[in-house]
Design brief:
about 40% helix; 4 helices; two-stranded parallel ribbon; alpha+beta; 2 strands; Rossmann fold
Length: about 90
């Protein structure tokens, strides 16, 4: 079974934990979290930021967002992503 067909099964069957692989990331990386996200709280992003190997890495936390900052603060989100991409293209 491929990871993207049933990712929850892959995770369980293979004792997979993505945080253990983050040190392989060496490209510029941006994490964006909503302050009020209780599904994947911003602390997860802080943890991930520390674990990746990239020297160009950023974490943004949106004060008025939960799990979908691209919806609740869409204008700011889009501009921030554009700025990040333009910085490294």
């Amino acid at each position: 079974m491929h990871l993207f067909n049933r990712p929850e099964n892959y995770v369980i069957d293979n004792d997979y934990f993505i945080l253990n692989e983050l040190d392989q990331i060496t490209i510029p990386t941006k994490f964006i979290y909503g302050k009020n996200d209780f599904s994947v709280p911003p602390e997860v992003g802080s943890d991930a930021l520390r674990k990746i190997s990239s020297t160009e890495k950023e974490l943004s936390t949106y004060e008025r967002s939960a799990h979908h900052p691209f919806i609740s603060q869409g204008g700011i989100f889009v501009q921030e992503v554009k700025n990040f991409i333009n910085q490294y293209k």
